Amino acid sequence: MRTDLTVGEICAGFEYSAAEEKGLFGWNGKLTIQPEYQRHYLYAESGGERERAVVASILSGYPIGLLYFNEVDGNFEVLDGQQRITSLGRFTKNYFAVEDAQGNPHYFKSLPAAEREKFLSTPLTIYICAGTESEIKAWYKTINIAGLALTKQEIDNAIYSGAFVTAAKAIFSNSANSNLHLWKNFVKGNVKRQDILRTALEWVVKSSQDAAVEEYMSLHRHDATAAELEIYFERVIAWAREIFPDMREEMCGLEWGRLYETYHANRYDVKKISAEVEKLFADEAVEDKRGIFEYLLSGRELTKLLHVRLFDKNVKRTVYTRQTQAAQIAGVSNCPICAAGKGSKAKKIWDYKEMDADHVTAWSKGGATDINNCQMLCKAHNRAKGNA
């Protein structure tokens, strides 16, 4: 345990780069603040409230908590405390201001000399860890349970850190990547929290199971590049973009990796697909617009994906009453299919609760969800008929 290092000493030689594949350094180069297994700097997000709070704590004389360093060949890495130390360093470099008691903003350079000295001379409490790589990373996982919880991919990046993780993060965890604007039409998540990287890994292993992703990362840990991962990811995106060239917000976050593997060998008329997308989005009966894309890819087989709106209770009651009255006059069943048969149920009058509403002309064949296209069938015949 060390208590002899001050904010000023730790921030001496502080370097900060917005290029996220590069680490951060302090303590005159002896401290790597952002080892490759660490998450990106997040305290500046949402208006920087958290980084200002760290600085305000120091200025008010409050402790900012225990920091953990890992000793590596005479130098040190931050095991826990990266966000807090980076906040302090960024403040000394005048990246942001904090407000005084009167609400006036002050950058570090504009603080009174006595306040600057107080800030820089504040001692920090640091625990120096030692152990094997696996022990250090297990510790990293444990001590990061509190605070801003690690994502599964941030943990995996730590466990399997190496050339592959560094290369993969440079592609998929870099908010300066010019491809990100396109990717976000298809992939949901925070690039800094490794969500895009996680999606790319799940696509290439064709599974969302943690074990499959971990096996792939372990196998490729020492690869100099992430070329296979990048090529496959780009292939999926290019295919999705080709089939559905008109971007819609409902496309974001779909299982494009699975859809590619399932349907990429099929041939599609893109102009026809585009026209059908427009038609389906305009159809009020389609309640799940996100299902439209796989519905069309499946050859319009998976109608259930659309959650086609059912007939409302008033329509069903009206149609049931009309059919039942007509059936009683004719002496046949009020289920049209039963009535057309010759069995024991050809003249059965079913109770309302024993019947379901059905499209006379199936919705998938252009039938509307309205009273003029509604008929009541006994539950058995409705299930047998299928196809909304």
Give your account of this protein's structure:
With 388 residues, this protein is α+β, with helices and mostly antiparallel strands. It folds into three domains: 148 residues, no CATH class; 86 residues, no CATH class; 73 residues, no CATH class. Helix content is 42%, strand content 11%. The protein contains 17 helices and ten strands. It has a six-stranded mixed β-sheet with strand order 1-8-4-5-3-2. The chain has a two-stranded antiparallel sheet with strand order 6-7. A two-stranded antiparallel sheet has the order 9-10. The chain is elongated and about 100 Å long. The protein starts with a strand and ends with a helix.
Q: How would you summarize this macromolecular structure in one to three sentences?
A:
The mean pLDDT is about 90. With about 400 residues, the protein is of the alpha+beta class.
Count of extended strands: 10
Low-confidence parts lasting 5 or more residues at pLDDT below 50? none
Number of helices: 17
Structural class by sheet pairing and helices: alpha+beta
N- and C-termini, Cα separation: 69 Å
Please, what is the average pLDDT? 89
Give the overall shape.
elongated
Query: Strands across the major sheet, in which order?
Result: 1-8-4-5-3-2
Counting structural domains, the number is 3
Largest beta-sheet characterization: 6 strands, mixed
SSE string? EHEEHEEHEEHEHHHHHHHHHHHHEEH
Measured by DSSP, the beta-strand proportion falls in 5-15%
Percent of residues in helices:
40-55%
Radius of gyration equals: 31 Å
